[in-house]
Request: fold
Amino acid sequence: MKRKLLIFLFSLLFFLKGQAQCAMCRAVLESGEDQSAAEGINDGIMFLMAVPYILVGVIGYLVYRTYSKPKKT
Reply:
C-alpha cells in the first residue's frame, strides 16, 4: 500500500511540474511580447488535461472499493 501511495505522489508531483502546450498555441504565443497570456494558455491546457485523469481515478477507486468489500453471509 505504501508503494502505491509513493508512486501516486511521485506521479502527481511530476505531473504538476510538466509543461503542456500545443504547437500552434506555442508558435502564436512565443511571437508576442506578453508572456502572461502564454502562461494562462498553458495553465488552461494543463487543467483540461488533468480533469479526465482525475475522473478516471475516482471512478476506479470507487469500483475497487465496491468489489474489495468482503461478502456478507
Remarks:
- Residues 2-68 form one domain.
- The radius of gyration is 19 Å.
- The longest helix spans residues 35-68.
